[in-house]
Design a protein that fits this description.
Length: 351
């Protein structure tokens, strides 16, 4: 039996340089948030979709916009509102009065990187239309079906606190997000740096008149990589070695979410696929050509938490999904030191 030739070392080295360049570019605009940048790169390199949850003002939209400018990709942003229609995202058929015939006007979803801002403000009909595109990478407009560009990635943002005028995302759509990352407030020293950088923003007098500079205006628009670099990185992810023992660990973790007495709805097989893809991408980002259990423990919360639903009895007892998952990981030997969204380590709470 012939073996599949491994990728040249030079390709992996070029991918690491590409990674470092993207991270450096993002760091010039966004303070901290090292972990969420890593999660965005994982989603980008695996073609998976990511949901960013957090209160307003912690740079969710700025992160996505900065990442899109760091790589030469097509980018579109849609601000989700309650009156948004599926045709506003997918496109529609337009009547050409000159020829008395219809032609298709494609919507903003025909892009490489789609930012769905405040996705939970859209009505279920709009969320359902987005669901087909996220899962099948195609869109139906009228009687025609169109394939979306490759790569195609949805970065959605959500404010988990505010409930007025919002629609809860159904479990089926949440399951389509490979990762769901929860952003936290920055530590005081990093928040001070945010304030320092904003001292240079505001209205400035220029030769052609006064202009207003915002945080988006300080983003360097020159890309540090191309679509070809991204495709090479996606190919390099597939060269990361995965052992059968590691697959057993993935099956064990996902299976525990279905058997735990406090969990009413466990994780689907798609959760295991998400953990596998994410672990390979994280290993590459960490400079390894193989996965280790640490990758699973680091990504378990982002891959599993949004796919779990507790029973009514567990909720009545005051238990949380994060606490139950922490309990499962502790039984499997997860390290007590965990990493938060802003990159700082903390000791995991005992179950």
């Amino acid at each position: 039996m012939s073996k599949t030739p491994s990728r040249p070392v030079a390709d992996t080295a070029a991918t690491i340089r590409f990674l470092d360049a993207v991270r450096t570019r993002v760091a010039t605009v966004v303070v901290g948030q090292d972990v969420v940048v890593e999660r965005l790169l994982i989603a980008l390199f695996t073609g998976g979709h990511i949901l960013l949850q957090g209160v307003p003002g912690i740079a969710k939209t700025l992160l996505a916009a900065t990442l899109s400018r760091a790589i030469d990709l097509q980018f579109a942003r849609v601000q989700f509102t309650i009156d948004l229609l599926p045709s506003d995202i997918l496109g529609s058929e337009i009547l050409d009065q000159r020829t008395n015939s219809f032609h298709v006007l494609k919507g903003p979803i025909f892009t490489n990187l789609l930012l769905a801002d405040e996705i939970n403000r859209a009505a279920p009909k709009v969320q359902g239309a987005l669901l087909e595109a996220m899962q099948e990478r195609k869109v139906t407009i009228g009687k025609e079906t169109f394939k979306l560009p490759a790569p195609f990635l949805v970065i959605a943002t959500q404010n988990p606190i505010e409930q007025a005028g919002t629609f809860e995302l159904p479990e089926a759509q949440l399951d389509r997000f490979m990762l769901c990352h929860r952003l936290e407030y920055l530590p005081p020293e990093q928040e001070k740096e945010v304030l320092r950088r904003n001292l240079n923003l505001g209205v400035r007098r220029e030769e052609k008149g006064a202009i207003a500079r915002t945080e988006f205006d300080v983003i360097d628009t020159s890309p540090v990589g191309t679509a070809e670099d991204l495709i090479s990185a996606m190919e390099a992810v597939h060269s990361v070695h995965v052992s059968d023992t590691f697959l057993d660990h993935v099956v064990e973790i996902v299976g525990r979410t279905r058997k735990h007495p406090a969990v009413a709805l466990g994780c689907s097989p798609r959760a295991g696929i998400a953990m596998l893809k994410s672990a390979r991408a994280r290993a590459l980002i960490q400079g390894r050509d193989y996965v280790v259990p640490e990758d699973l423990f680091a990504l378990a919360e982002d891959c599993l938490l949004h796919r779990m639903r507790l029973s009514y009895e567990a909720l009545a007892d005051g238990r949380t999904t994060a606490g139950v998952l922490e309990e499962m990981l502790s039984e499997l030997g997860a390290p007590k030191q965990r990493t938060t969204a802003n990159g700082t380590a903390h000791t995991a709470a005992k179950a």
